[in-house]
Amino acid sequence: MTTGKIALITGSNGGLGQALVDRFLAEGYFVFAGVKDLSMDTVTRPNCMTVQLDITSDADIEHCHREIAKVGQLTVLVNNAGVSGWGSFWKRELADEQAIFDVNLWGTVRMIRSFWEDLEANHGLIVNIGSISWAVPTPFISAYSASKSALEKMVLGMYLEKKRTAVRVLHLNLWPLDQGMCGNAIAKESETYNEKIRTHMVKIQKFHGFHVENVAKYILRFSESDTRYRVVTLGWWAKAICFFGMLVPQPRYQKMIGRLYKSV
Hints:
Largest sheet: 7 strands, parallel
Strand content: 5-15%
Number of domains: 1
CATH architecture: 3-Layer(aba) Sandwich
């Protein structure tokens, strides 16, 4: 049993999740690193426990809850797990699009409901990893955009229903991070996705991606603040895109997006 701070980070296999694990450990947290597949995690570190955690599985979540209870009380929940599903909506199965919602929306909501009481008792923090696609609907990730938009609105509604609560919430809207997420997700299903789409999205990610270390640093800074609820867009390019998406009339926006993806 530890009396220190405990963090649970979902989607910890790599990229942002791994960076968050490293940063929280450096700040003295005991970290539970949630991974969907335990066979992919081979690193053992002090004050870090890897747990199998498919956020669409009630059994996995209950098991994770029990493991945390053996150590102490949860302080920070970072809902980082998500799926992208890059590719043409018209070439993908509807079940694949529904699966995106099962993870990005309902899986995250399932995590919040499961750990809310623990975080309430400990004046804890919930961090949700969102996307700027809520403000700028984008071709080839239509279901992903919709799932992230729905998550932001639903969590805010859930939070407001609680009225007086000790839980704090940070919702981060990010541009695709420079962690290889887009390219890797597509490469695994190369028979499904058009190579032009893959190349196009990887170029956007590499050029404008926000470094994972900066995201981790921001979350740690916020965890020390007294702010109750905040929605933040990180990175000047991401902020510009959101500003553009909200101000430009839809006909003009559709025309510009059409030109951008014309070669795809």
